[in-house]
Amino acid sequence: MKRKILQSISPIIHPITDLVLERYYKGQLECAPLKEERVLLLAPHVDDETIGAGGTIHQHIKSGAETTVIFLTNGAGSVSDLDQSELIERRRKEAYNVQELLGIQDIRFFDEPDGELASTNSLQARLKEVMEELQPDVVYAPVFVDCHSDHIETGHLLRDTLQQVPQSPKVRLYEINTALPKEEINCVVDITKSFDVKTEAVDIFKSQTIDFDGFLALARYKSRLVEQPNVEVVETFLELDQETFTNRFDAVYGQYAYSEYFKQVNKAATLLLALFKNLSFKQRVYQESKGGTSSS
Q1: Are 29 and 74 in contact (CB under 8 A)?
Q2: I need a labelling partner for 166 at 20 to 30 A (CA). Which of 39, 85, 118, 159 fits?
Q3: For the chain, what is the HEC assignment?
Q4: pLDDT higher than threshold 80 for residue 165
C-alpha cells in the first residue's frame, strides 16, 4: 500500500526533489584521481559494496588496481520473503554475480551473524591477516554515523585492526543508509563511465524486498558538487588518515542510537525526508567527532 501511494504522488515529489537537491549539492569540489594500486573494501552485507562504492570500485579495477571485497556477515537478516538458509545462499550467489560484473579480483566471506557484528579479537585477527597479506593503499568502510549497527561495527573492526598492522592506508568512508552532510564530503569520484555497470549490479539484488532507486538518484544529484560539465554521476566519501579516523570514530562511538533519528535513503520518493530529517543533529554529531560542538 505504501509503495502504491508513493508511486501515485511521485510526479509531484520528483520535480520538487530535483529543485531542492540540485541546489543543496551545489559545490566547487574536484573529482579525486584513483591512483591506489591495492584496494580493500569492507562490506557489512552483500550489496553495501555496490550501493556505496560500486562505481568507484569499477573505476579502480579499470585503472589496474588489485581489489578485494570482504563481506563480513552472512546476510541472513536482510528484508526478504526467503527462508534464512535460502537467503544466505542467494546472497552469496549475488556476491559472485557482482564480482563477475564489476571485475573484482578477490572476494571473501567472513560469515558473521547478520545484525550481530562486533569487533571481537578473533575477527580482528582474521582481518589483520588479510591486511598484512594485501597491504592495501586504501580501505573503504561505511561512515560511522549510520542507522545499522553492522555498518558502524564495520568501522569499529577496522579501527581496532589498524592499531595492529604496520601499514597506514587511507580510510575512505562510504555512505549506505545514512548520507554524509554535504560539508563532510571531501572526496568525490566521477563514476559517469561506470554508472551503467553500477545500475546493472544493483539489479542483481533480487533477494531483498527493498527499493534501490534512491541510492542511484543521489549519485546524480551529488554530481552538482563538482563544476566539471562532463561529470554526470559521482560517489562521495569522507577520506581520513588513520589517526584522524580513529579519533573521530572514538569521539562518537556508542553515544547515539541513530535509527531513532534518521531515515534510510533507499527510496527516491522520500529522499528529501531522508536527507533533511534531523540534519542539524547529524551535523552536530560530525562536529563532535572532530572534538568540537556545533554552533547550531
Answers
A1: no
A2: 118
A3: CHHHHHHHHHHHHHHHHHHHHHHHCCCCECECCCCCCEEEEEECCCCHHHHHHHHHHHHHHHCCCEEEEEEEECCCCCCCCCCHHHHHHHHHHHHHHHHHHHCCCEEEEEEECCCCCCCCHHHHHHHHHHHHHHCCCEEEEECCCCCCHHHHHHHHHHHHHHCCCCCCCEEEEECCCCCCCHHHCCEEEECHHHHHHHHHHHCCCCCCCCCCHHHHHHHHHHHHHECCCCCCCEEEEEEECHHHHHHHHHHHCCCCCHHHCCCCCCCHHHHHHHHHCCHHHHHHHHHHHCCCCCCC
A4: yes
Rounded CA separation 203/167 (Å): 36
The model's pLDDT over 97-128, given as tens digits with 9 standing for 90+, comes to 999 999 999 999 999 999 999 999 999 999 99
Residue 148 has pLDDT above 50, yes or no: yes
* 196 CA to centre of own chain: 18
Res. 295: pLDDT tops 70 = no
Cα-based distances in Å from 25 to 183, 208, 220, 230: 10, 30, 10, 17
- Stretch 208-232: mean pLDDT, rounded? 92
pLDDT score for 87: 86
The answer to whether the CB of 27 falls within 8 A of the CB of 21 is no
Q: Give Cα 81 distance to the centre of its chain.
A: 24
Q: How far apart are CA 286 and CA 183, in angstroms?
A: 10
| Residue 219 CB partners (closer than 8 Å, separation 6+) | 55, 191, 195, 198, 233, 234, 235
Residue with cell 566521477: 190
Place of cell 588496481: 65
